[in-house]
Amino acid sequence: MNTLVLAVALFLLANLVVALIAAARGPTPADRMLMALLIGTTGTGILVLLANAMHLPALVDVALVLALLAAIGGIAFAKRAWQGKEDDHD
Amino acid sequence: MIEWLSMALLLVGAFFFFAGTVGLLRFPDVYSRLHALAKADNLGLGCVLIGLALQAESIAAALKLLLIWPLVMAASAGISFAIARRAHALGIVPWRKAGP
3-state DSSP call for residue B90? Predict the structure, then answer.
C-alpha cells in the first residue's frame, strides 16, 4: 500500500517536471500561467500523498496553503497581470 | 476491500493528472487548455483525496483531506472563469479546425 502511494507520488512528480519544462517553453503568458496552476494542483496532490506515506500530518496543512496560493495567483494573473499586448495569442 | 478501492482510486487520480498534463501540452488554445486543467483539478485531485481519506486513521483526518477538494474546485471554477473572460476581453478567438 505504502509502495503504491509513493509510486503515485513519483508519477505525479514526473508530470510536474514535464509541466515545468513546458511552462518555460510556452509561448504566451496564459500558457505559462496555466502550467503554474497545474503545478499548484499537482503539488497539492504530491504533498497529500507524502503526508500519508511518511506519516507526517503537517504536510496536509502545507498542501492547503499551496492550493490557496495557486488560487490567489491565478486570480491575480487574470485580473491584473495579463495585459496581452506584447505577443501573439495562439 | 477498502484497500483495493483506495488503490483503484489512487490510480484513477494519477491517470487524470496525466490526462490533464497531456491535454495542457497538446490542446491548441487557451479555452481548451482551461478544460484540460479542470480535469486535473477536479477529478485527479478528487480521486486521490478520496483514496487517501479511505485509509486515514480517524474521521477527523479523513474530513480534513476531503475539505481540500471543495477549496480546489471553487478556486478552479473561479480561475477558469476569470481567465476565460480576460482572454475573451483581449480578443482571443476560440480555435476552430481549419475547414476545407
Answer: coil
Q: In this structure, what C-alpha cell is assigned to residue B53?
A: 481519506
pLDDT digits (tens, 9 = 90+) for A32-56: 888 989 999 999 999 999 999 999 9
Contact A40, A70 (CB under 8 A): yes
Q: Report d(CA A31, CA B40) in Å as an integer.
A: 16
Rounded Cα–Cα distance for residues A29 and B26 (Å): 16
ipTM of the complex: 0.87
pTM: 0.87
| B69-83 residue pLDDT tens | 999 999 999 999 999
Please, which residues 19-78 of chain B have a Cβ atom closer than 8 Å to chain A?
20-21, 24-25, 28-30, 33-34, 37, 40-41, 44-45, 48-49, 52, 55-56, 61, 64-65, 68, 71-72, 75-76, 78
Interface of B with A in 68-97 (CB under 8 A): 68, 71-72, 75-76, 78-79, 82-83, 85-87, 90-92, 95
User: CB under 8 Å to A35, separation ≥6 — which residues?
Assistant: A19, A20, A22, A23, A26, B24
- DSSP reduced 3-state for B46: helix
